[in-house]
Structure formats: C-alpha cells, structure tokens
Amino acid sequence: MASDIRADGEAAGLIEGRPSYGDLSREIAGVSLGTRRPRFFWLGFAFFFLLALLFLFSVTWLLAIGIGTLGLNIPLAWGVPITNTVWWIGIGHAGTLISAILLLLRQKWRNSINRFAEAMTLFAASIAGLFPILHLGRPWFAYWLLPLPVTHMPWPQWRSPLTWDFFAIATYLTVSLVFWYMGLIPDLATFRDRAKSRGQQIVYGVLALGWRGSVFHWARYEEAYYLVAALATPLVVSVHSVISLDFTVAITPGYHSTIFPPYFVAGALYSGFAMVLTIAVPLRSAFRLENVITEKHLDNGAKVMLASGAIVAYAYVNEAFYAWYSGDEVHRYAMWARAFGPYAPTFWVMIAANIGSLVPLSFGAVRRRPWVLFAIALVINLGMWLERYIIVVSSLARDYLPSTWDTTTPTWTDYGLIFGSIGLFFALMFLLVRLLPLITIYEVAELAHEEEAEAAP
Amino acid sequence: MSDQQEQHGLLAVFDEPEALERAVERLRGRGFTALDAFTPFPVEGLAEKLGYRRSRVPLLVLIGGIVGFASVFWLEAWSVLVNYPINVGGRPLFSWPAFIIPAFEGGILGGSLCGLFGMLALNRLPKLYHPVFNAPSFSLARDDRFALLVMSHDPLYDRTKLRRLFRDLGARAIEEVAP
Amino acid sequence: MSATDDAGPNRRDVLKLMGASLALAGLTACHPARQIVPYVRQPEDVIPGRKSYYATTLAIDGFGFGVLAESHEGRPTKIEGNPHHPASLGAADAILQASVLGLYDPNRAQTPTRDGVPAGYDAFLAEVATLRGSLAKDWGRSLAVLIGPETSPTLASQLAALRAQFPEMQLYRHAPLATPEADAASQAVFGRASSPLYHFDRAKVILSLDGDFLGEGGGKLAYARQFADARRVTGTSSSMSRLYAFASTPTLTSAKADHSRRLRASAMGTVLTAIADRLDGRPTNSDPMESKLLDAIAIDLRQAGPNALVIAGSRLDTATQAAAHRLNARLGAVGHTIDLLPPLGIASDAPDLHALADAIGAGKVDALLILGHDPVFTAPGDVDLAAAVKRVGFSAYWGPYADGTANACRWHIPAAHALEGWSDALGFDGTPSIVQPLIEPLHGGRTMHDVLVAFLGELDKNGRDLVRARWSTLDDQSWAQALKSGVIDAPKPTFLMPSVTATNATPTSPSSAPSLELNLVPDLYFRDGAFAPNTWLAELPRPLSRMVWGNAVEMSPATAKRLMVDTGDVVEITIGSRSIELPVAIEPNQADDTLTVPLGYGRLAGGAPVVGTSAYGLRKQNAAWQLPVTGVRKTGARQKPITIHGNFDTEGRDIIRTAALADFAKDPAVLARNKQPEPAPDDRLFPAWDNPEEAWGMVIDTGSCIGCMACVSACQAENNSPVVGPEQVALGREMHWLRVDRYETGDADAPQTHFQPVPCMQCENAPCEEVCPVNATVHTHDGLNAQVYNRCVGTRYCSQNCPYKVRRFNWLQYQDFSEDSPLSALMNPNVTVRERGVMEKCTYCVQRISAARIDAQDGNRPIRDGEVVTACQQTCPTHAITFGNLNDPRSAVRRAKAEPHNYVLLAELNTRPRTSYLADIRNSNGDADG
Hints:
Chain A is mostly helical and 457 residues long. Chain A has helices at 2-12, 21-33, 39-65, 80-104, 111-134, 161-194, 198-207, 215-248, 260-286, 295-326, 329-340, 344-356, 358-361, 364-367, 370-397, 412-435, 441-455.
C-alpha cells in the first residue's frame, strides 16, 4: 500500500498550486503567528475549554469521594477509565505512525499532517496515561509502581502486565516528546527569525537552541531523526501490544485471547486515523490549508482506516471462531453473552459503527469528500470506544461462576471523564495551533522543492 | 592574517539550492576547506560535498539502547533473586520471559534519548550565539535563502577574490560576517 | 478457649475495673473505650493482647443458646457457640454472631425518657414507688404487665413475687411468632399442649411438611448437627437418613431434602391423608401429586417404623399438625425420634394483646408495664395498641430501642444488652443456663429484672443477686461451675408420655382452598423484628431469596405469570380490608398460588434504618399465618429487590457435584460428569513451591452445608468486615469475604437446591498474585495467599483475574476511622481495618493461625491438628468445614481430601486451590421419581 500512495503522491501532487517557498512558510506559520484569529476559533476553544473544566471537576470528585463514584463493582472492577486509556493510546498511535513509520517509508504525503499528528500523539498519550492512575483505589500511591529502592515497599511485580504498561506508556510519552521536539527545532528557528516582538524572539530563540541550519547539522539531525523514528516504530507496536496483554494475560474468558496484540494495534490505527481526520478536515477548511492538506492526504488516511478496519473486522470474527473452536464452554458462553447478553445493544452498535463504516470507505468517491469522511470518522471514534468498553465490561459480566454474574452502568462521573478528556484534548489542540507550527515548514518546503525539481524537465 | 581578527568570514546568499550547490562545488574545486552552508531544509548530498563523513550518532543510539535494556533487565533479575525474593503466584523467581518487556521499553528509551542528546552534542548545540546571526541577510525566516560561508581562517581566504567569485555564481547578497 | 478454664470469680474484678475505665470513658456520650485507662491493678487472668472467653447465654425467640463471648481487655468482640450447651454444641447461628453488633449499636436508646424527654432513672424509681402505693390499695387490680415469649426462670420467680404482692394484677403475653395451632394439635392428639423435641440421630426417614427444623426454633443448631451427622458420607459405604420435604415456601430444610416438592400450605393435609391411607391399606381417594412418590414415602416410613419422623410445620392448620402427630404415634416414633416437652414459655396461656386492649378500653388498666418485644410494631392490624397505651395513666416500656412502643409509653427504660446484664434462660430442651455480663452497660441500660425490682420494691437487689437467688439450690461451687461451663446442672423437664387419643381421626383438608393464599413467615434473621435494627443481619443474604435490605412478596413463576407481574413490580396485596405494598420476587421453588411475605421488616427502632415493609398489619388476630388473599393489584411502581448472587443456574458447568448415594456407592466417578479435563497433580509447567512448615488447606462439605449463613456472619464479625448499605449492595459491592452460593439442579417440580460456601480458594498458582503490579498479594511460607493491605494501590487487577471472584474492594471509605466511632470497640484488634481503595479477601483467618503458631512456639512444639479453627469453621452447626495442615499426614483435612467425593472448583484452570469441596451426596429414593 505504501508504495502506491507514494506513486499517487507524486502523480496527484501533495502540494497544490505550486506556491513559492516563501508563500508556503508564510502561509503555515501565519496560522500561528498571525495576530488575528477568526471568531469560530475562540468559540471552539471556549467550548472545549468548558469540557476540560468538566474533566477537572470529575477528577476532583473522583479523588475526593473515591473510585466508588464510578460505575464499577465486583466482578466488573474495570470499566470506563481503562476503556478510555486504551482508546486514547490508540489515538496517539496514529500520530506516531504518521510521523515515524511513514517517515521511514518515505511517504511524502505525511509531511503536511505529521506535526499535528505528533502533537495529537503527545496529548492523547498524556491523557491516556492519566486514567490508569485515576482508576487506582489509592491514586496517591501511584508512584509505588516505580522501581524505587524505598523501604516501605518492595520492587514492582515484574510479571504484572500493569507494570509493563507503566514502563511502556512512560517510554512512549518520553519518546514521543523527543521525536516531536526534534522535528520542531528547525521550525522554531524559522519562527525565531520571523518573530516580530522581542518576547517571541527570545522564547522561540531559546527553544530553537540556536539552530542555524548548517548543512553539517542537518546531516546529523537527519540521521538522529530517522533513528529515533526507527525506534519509535517498534515502540508504538509494543505499547499497544502491552496494553492488550492486560487482557490477554488475564484468564477471564473474553480477555484470554492471543489475537489481541495485533488486533489492538490495528484497532489503534483505525481509531487513530479516524481522529486524525476528525481534526484535519475542520482544520484545513478553517485555515484554508486545502493546498497543504490535500484531498490526497484525506484519501490516504481513509485508505489506512480501510485497511486497519478490515483487520479489526477480521479480529472480531477470529475471536468468535476461536471461542467456539477452543471447546471451552465458559469462553464460548462469554462470547455468546457478548452478542446476546446484557450488553448486546452496545455490542451491535459497535459492530455497526466499526464494520459498517468500511462499506462507504471502500468507495474512492466517498474518500475524497472531506465532510463525509469527517462524519465517518466520528462514527468510527465512537465505535472504537464502544469496542474497548465491550471487551473490558462484557467479558467480566459473564465469567466462570454464574453466581457472581453482575452488570454495571456508567455514572455521571464516568461520562464526565469521557467527555471531559475529549474536551481537554481538543482544548490543547487549539492552543497548539495558536502557538506552534502545526505543519512542518521545512519538510513541506523540501517537498515543494523536490516536486518543482521533478516538474522541471 | 589580519582578516581573521576582524571578521568571521564571508557570506553569500543564493535563491536556489542548486545555485548553492554549484557554488560549493566551485569553491571545493578551488581547494577551499573552511566552508559552511546554511539551508532552510536539508539539501541532499550537500553535506558530503562539503566534506562531511558519517557521524557517530548511530553508535551513540546503539549504546544507549543496549544500556537501557541491560540495566532494566538487571534490575528485574536482581530485585527478584537477591533483594526481595518472594513466592508470587507459584511462579519461578526468575520469570525471564516476563522481564523482557520492561527491558525492551528501557532499551527504546535509552536509544531515543541518546539520539536527541547525541545529535545536539555532536552539533555543539545549544549555542544561542553564532557569528552568522549578525549577518542581516542571514535568516531562516524564509525558505528561499541558501547561504554559503567561507570562514576567514581558510588559507585561501581572500575577500576581494571571493566577492568576485560569488558575484559570478549569482549570489543575491554578499556580506562580511563579524566574529 | 484456654481462658475459659480460669474464668469465674475473679472475672468480676475484671468487670469492676473495666466498668471503671469505661465509665471514665464517658459512656453516656456513646463512646465506648474512647480512652484506654490503664489497669489500677492488673487482674491475673487478663493479659493485654490475649483474648479470653466467658460462657453466657443469648436468647432467640425466648430460647436460650449457650455461647462463649470473646473478650479483648473487657471488650466483647465475638460470639462463639458453647460446646457444653445442648442448644449450641459449639456452634452459633447468624443471629448470635451478629449480636455483638447489637451491643455496640449506636442506635440503641441511650437514656431513660419520660414522655420522650430524657429523664433520670431515679425519677422513674420515684414514680414507681408512689405508684406501688396506689396499687397496693386495690391489690394491684389496675396493674397490667405485658411480657413477650420468655423462658427466664428468674423472670418467672419475679413475676410470681409480683403476683404475691399484687394478687389481682393482670398478666398478658404477646408472642407474635406464637403457633397456637401446634398447641391445639398436641392438645387434640395427646390431650395436652406440648412442644416437640426431635432426635434426628435416631431418625432414618424424615417427612417434613413446611417444618423447617434446620432454620428455625430453639433447637435448630442441635438438630442441624444431628441431621448432618446422620448423613455424613465417608468413603463409598455410608448410610444416610432420608428426608422428604413438602414446602409451600422453600426453607433450609426443603433445600436439603432428598426429595422435595412444592405444595401450598393448605394442601399439606392431603399428603398426610394419602400417606395415612397407604399405611392403613385404605384405598386412597385423591392424591395431591405423583402417587409414585407417595408410595415410596409410605413404604419408607413403614420400614423405618419407630425410626421414622413426620414433622408438620408448627404454623400449619391444627388438623394437619394433628394428623402428623397421629402418624408419628402410629409409626411408634413418639418417645423415640420425637419426645414431648411441657411448654417452656412463661405464662404461655396468659391472655394476649386483644385482651389487654379490651381491658384498657374498659378502663381496667391504670398502670402498664411492657417488657420488651415492641408490641406496638408486632400487634395484629386490628389492635391499635399505641392509642390504647396512650390512654393508660402510667405506662412504662422496657426495650433496647426508642421504637413505636417506646414512643407510645410514658416511660422508656433502655434495655441492657444480654452481654451487659444478669439473667437466665431455658434452652429448647429445657436446659437452664445463666446470662452473665461481660461488660458494664455501655448506655446505662437496665435488665428486665432491674425494672421488676423497682415494681417489687426490692431496690437493694442487683441482677446477680436475683439470678443467684433463683438458683439458690446450687451451692457456690456448682454455681461457679455453672458460670464457667455456661450450663446449669439442673434436672431437665421430664418428657410427657402421652396417650394418643382419637387415633383414627383423619384431617379434613380445607375443601374450599382460596384461589390465592398468603403465607406469613418470620424472617430467618430478623425473626419477629427483634433483630431488624441489626445492620449485619440486614445485609446478610437470605439463603434462598438472596434478598438483603428489604422484604418482598415471593411467588412462583407460574403465579407471577397468572398475576401478570414480574420481579420488581410493586403490588398491593389486600387481605379483607387491609393491604400492604411490596415488590414482587420470583422464587422458582415456591408453591403455585402461594404468596409469601416475611415478617419482622419495616420496624422503626431509634435511628436504625427502617428495612422493608411490615406485614403484621395484615393479621386479624395474633399469630395468624395463612391468610386468604382478597386481591393483588399491580401499582405500576417498580422497586427491584436487592439481592446478592441471585443466579441459581450452573449453566451446566462443573460447579456443583451431586449424585444419589446409591449411584455414588457403585461408582464415585458418577460425580465427574460433564467435567473439563483436569491437570494431573504432577504435570506442572514449573516446579511447585514447597511449604516447609505448614501447608494450610480447607475442605467444605457441600452435603453437610445447610446454607444457614452463620459462617458469613461469623466471618464478618471476625474480620471486621464493614456494612456498606443498600445502595452499595445494589451496585454489587457487598463486602462479605465468604459467600454461600445457591444453585438449583433438577426441575421446578422436583427442585434440588445446593449450597456452596465460597471463601478464597488460596490457590497455589494464584492468578491474582501474578498480575498485581506492586506485590500487594503474595504467597506466605505456609501457603496462604496473603493480601498486604498497606501495600495495595487498588488496581483491582487481582479481582479481574480471580475466577472465583472472592475478592472484595473498598470502593468508598466504608469503615469509620474516627476515634469516637461507636463501632471502634467492636473491632477485632487482631485484624486490620481496611481503608478506602484497598482490596481485601479471606485469609483463612491468618490472625488465628498466627495466634496458634505463637502458642506452639511457646510450647516449642508443632501446631496441633485442630488447633487452628477458622471463624467459619468454628461457628458451622454441621461441621461442614474442615481446616488444617496438609503437611500433616494424620490431619483431618488430609483425610477429607482423600475422600472419593473430594473435588476442587474450576480445576481445569490449574489454579491448584487449597480449598476443595466434598460433593453433595443425596440419599435419593430410586422408586420415588418416575
């Protein structure tokens, strides 16, 4: 798939209208440095900021009253927080994929979306990292998962997938930050030299670390950048695999399945690219970046969704098949209950959203209609959240001893955490758009240069 | 001789990366060694033309990765075997397959950090002051400024000749850079 | 247990000292043991940190149960059964276990009140003194005393003394759970009222018609022991007694029956007729059910002869109970498997509430003394006692709570808890035993004897003097012995040797049975409502309905369908002119056309939560049990009954193993039907850890378990488990470490119920430990699956990975940590009180193991088999739980695990549980089922 995208990329043009380099960088940087912002920007920011405040409130309530304010019980001791973790981490992964893997695959079309994709990764991963801590019974002791040589506790229990999680997510956050900042350095230098006010000059100047675009620096820079990308690639796969091990390692029927690691990674891409489109479509039309984020980008994103979504759909079938094939009555019943048990409605909505969306996505005409894609992306975001919820909850609702079977429903605090975290995420995205180049100037410029060179006979 | 005290070098700014490349080739051909070029985006092959050889960044990343992996794995083994051995779920103390995962993450972390900081170190960054920043025509603000710097300590350094040369090469701006 | 031996005289010194220190602690402010005052003089038998036991007696429905009260530095914290007492035999039921909570209950009345205003006890005494003056004039004609179901000999002698002073005084008795039909029946058959005493150790064939001898009555613990002993299966060659049960509402007894049938109460008589006909070879006119079964029963009964036992529920109609008596007499069982005792209750023939109300109405009562039992609450619907009492000039109520009666009366004297004062009581077999205090009254409560002392004008006498005087026949040594052993060595009441009259009279089953009949039954734990304020009992699942924090009207699925209602629909049940509203609960084993409502709910008692709805108002006269339903109306409101573990279906999984004794004897493998492949003991992926010292293990006999929930209550008391309240339970957050699951095999027409207690399995390959990220649950050197509370961060992953779901989580701050928490003195000092956000679970009572280990190490010897007794094991009436060291080849637990019907739950998961089960073997009669 990679190669044909590249072919398309060269054929259809990933930057339209052949603007001069100067125009390009002015256009991009203008989004951030330009002083006037359209009203809808502030309205949107205000809306999401309010949601972010809801998050703050829910978290405060949660910490004050206790985890009991969430819709949890025995046997359903995990619920919305874990669902959110998996969902947000998945969203983050798309960012890393775009910025790292596509970089390694020399997918030029990535250039104009990778910066905000990386930012997306950072914010999503940070939010995802919050939930495992919030969902502890005693969050104030979360640091006990750190390998600290302190006397009141022994070391972490290295066999526990949660310990693995802790290391995976922490590493993922750090590496994403490193990768993101590395990519940012040259553009910060550009900002430094464009900045009018002294203050901006100082801030961007310090952040740019005195980058002066020396050819020698560029050489080492690119080596390092590609190496980190090369490291981030197995990392992103490992992180979501580790997350899936939380379930796979447990003997709970509906958790205990070897398909999970690949299934979760595919799911991560599916929901992640859905989120990329959810952001990219409004962004390009809002800031008139149609000639930077072209329909080609949207099309390619949709194609990734199509592919990963197909894998997810396969995983659903595979899961059910192996439940039957295992011959284990408990596992079989858990799968049956997933589709026809207490959480059946949720399950079928999830199926409709995740598998149903594949049908329109498989039509090129649809893939090239931004706002249709946007709608589909929203549906997939919902569907993938439900998928994680179904996995976490429905499996627990019907496990080994029928006497212990129970169900639970989310409380308002749960919803506060869900929508609040979404608000926090987008509020951060708004701030990012305001403060940093949301598209890699130097890479787009390089791309434009190359395309011109190729266009010239 | 005297030039070296009062100036850092001579800077020529071109509009096109190709022009810059031509200039570099010309000067290298004439035996100039103390050259540096500044571009708004990486121009492939230009560094090699300026006499750049593979850096030690990959080596640093490799070392970082190995150290990260080994230290985490050692911590795991030591903590369960020596420091706090205890029966957990009837599993063996040294459950190495489980230990690999945190160790792997440790390796990735070590490698990436060495990647960033190794690159900065080898580039002698951060370095907030550099003489070229004094040159008014030097700027990364626009991405159509491709600058070539001949440093004054180059044995062949001769202001007047260079100016002529740069003008022939079609430089948009030529100026002397104060130290 | 050791400390009981040196109980006795110098225990009183302890009491004085504790009294002093507790008094200093400002008891009236309801802060027991708020500050610990050091002993002025260290009593030799109190070692700080070492618990001691004192023998005393607790009463349920007036019947005495001998108990050992565990005391930590003078704080009673736990109740165990008294092995020397015939009614307890070392066991205790859920109510007894929960009674310590009753002691520290912050909702108890704290001070005497006069017209609702706090007043000194002295004021009461003064008022009584003047009252005595006026009463003396007319020989106490205007004095009325209302007592409940009591057996205390001391009370009897006090009442006699009172009668001596006021010859004309009126004595009334109100026993809401009384069973006049039983008396009438024995009157009819044996010529005099009597209460039966069963011998299940002799009974080979038992036929029970709504007779719940395992769940109710003063003899339930003893009967359960006899019953279980007669049915214990060891090896493949065992003999068991056989139990046939007909139940209108499923009971513990019908649940344990080898053959059980659903049958409405009004039809029970027809069964007896049919069987009597068969025994007499008379042609049977109409069989209420499969003749095959009735034939089998008749044949079994005839073969058993004197070893047969027919038990008719004491709440059935007189004719049916009489028929049962006659059947017993005819089989020769009377005097063998059943003996007859004279009624044990005091003044059981005294007039009841109606008479009292009439007397008040007629203005015959100027002074009224009510001794407990909240008659205003338990009064039948057509007696407005509260109004009547208000008309009486002087009324005094002695009771523990500021309840309806207290509000109606002028004076309310807070009652002392049984652990706070002196008294005595008779066991079900007439065995007298002494109630002795372990602690000074926390809230200055008085015993009923103290109150009567005031009316008798003998203010110089304290409780101990009274009881001692009552038992003056004992010399000091046997008195001390009685205090120590908890049983008074007095001549038992002699059995009646009745001459059976009118043998051939057959019961006439009510021909016009109502289309829908309502069974009122006493709640298993609240009884008449006396224990309704006890939150442990409110949150203890009823063994069959699984309901907590409320009652409901139970009905069979068919009846629900006919009435077009479903679980959770609130219906209005009308009996004549009275009606109540209750949610519907569907009970598969309920007889059709029978509604069942438990009594004892809806009681107002001080600040205690009002649980459920009272059904006393439906009664026309006292002790009416079966009522014809006028109408059932769906109100449209919904209120789902709160249940714990309400799924009775095994889904065909290998959870409960059961078989008929005959089949099992032939081939034990019959148990292992539909089981998953299990790993062999030695096929392990990695070497097993060995336990160098002990390897603790447990075996639970599901055949012996009668599902009485005593173990759950005992576990709660031993391990400081909190009460979480109805909302939290409804969310599925109950905190019991031990649960007793109910499973149903067999179809609705021939139901077979199984109980399965599920504590932590203490897996050797514990799945919970492997996934804990902070080493908060790990294995100990002696093979326990330990939970380290202060290391737990609350990821709850352990519970996720526990296939038995035995872990409990502190979702909120369930325990009151404040130093002035009224329950702080109740806590077992050897068990951590858990904080919010911490996981907890059964630990095989690790604190008891440690205590035993310390003793053993003191004696430089290994821990003896049976030295460690877990709380659940100790309280179990049927010895269904065996616990011990698996490394000891001679230990009881090793023998139990060697039994052919030993199995582990979910063995296919290779968790290697240390807790295993013995299959539920039933002595089914092959000829009974078609």
